[in-house]
What does this fold into?
Amino acid sequence: MIKIVLARVLQAILVMIAVTAVAFVMFRFVGDPVSMMVREGASQAEKDALRVALGLDKSLAVQFGEFVWRVLHGNLGTSLRYQQPVTELLLARLPATLELVIVATVLALALGIPLGIVSALKPNGILSRLIQSLTLIGVSMPTFVTGLLLILVFAVNLRWLPSSGRGDVVDLGFWQTGFLTSSGLKSMILPSITLALFQLTLIMRLVRSEMIDVLSSDYIRFAFARGLPRRHIYGRLALRNTLMPVITVTGLQIGQLIAFAIVTETVFQWPGMGLLFTNAVGFPDIPVLAAYLLFVGLMFVLINMIVDVLYTFVDPRLRTKQ
It folds into this structure.
C-alpha cells in the first residue's frame, strides 16, 4: 500500500512540474509585462529599470527556478489589472466557486442515481426512453444556452429567481458563504442547475449501464431464485456494486466542474474564479491566467491521486496487481 501511495505522489509531482512549466511559459512569453505595467510615455530607462526589478533580465533557467520558488511559497505574482496579489484574489473567489461546485455535485448525484436506477429496471419502457431523451437533450445543449434559457424563464418571465450575482453572503472570517442567507440560496439555484446538467447526464447513463450489467449477473439471478425481496436485491446487492465506478467518475468530475465553471460563472456573473479568469483573458492579466492554470492543475492532480488511492482500498484486486 505504501508503494502505491508513493507512486501516486511521485506521479502527481511530475505532473505539477509540467503544469508549472506551462504556467511559466504563459507568464513569461504571453505578452510583455513591462509594456503592460509601465506608465504611458515612459522612457526606455524606466522600462529597463522595471525589467530588472521584475527579474526579466536573467536567464530562462534562473527565471524558472525563481518562479517555482515563488509558487512553492504561495507567491503567484501581482495582478496587472487589480494591482493586488494574485493569491489574495484567488482565495477571495474560491468560496464562491467551491460552493457552486458542491451544490452542482449534490444535485447531479441526488437526481442522476435514482434516474439511472429507474431507467435500468425497465430499459425498454416508456419512462426509461423518456429519461434518456431528456438527458440527451441536456447533454447536447451548450452550457451557455441552458443558462440563458433558465434566466429567460425563471428570472425574466416568472421573476422567481435572480439572474446574476451571488446574493447576500455571511463573512465567517476565513470563508464567505451564501448558504446562510435566503438571497444567497436563491442566487445559487440557477447556476448550480446549469453546472450540474452535464454531470447529471453522465452519472445517470453510467448508473443505468452498470445496473443493467449487474442485474444480468449470476449472483443476482441466484438472489431472485432464493426468493429474496426485490428491494433487498436492487437496493443492497445491485446498487452497491453499481456505485463503485460512479464514485470514481464523480471524484474526477469535481475537478472538471471547477475547471469548466467558467462559462456558468460568466453567464450568471457569479463572482468566482471562473469569472476572474474570463476577465483576465479580456485584459489580458497574465499572472491571473497562469495562477488559475496552476490551481486547476493542482485540483485535478489531487483529486486523481485521492481517487486512485481510495480505489485501492475499495477494490483489493488493484493491490495484488502492484
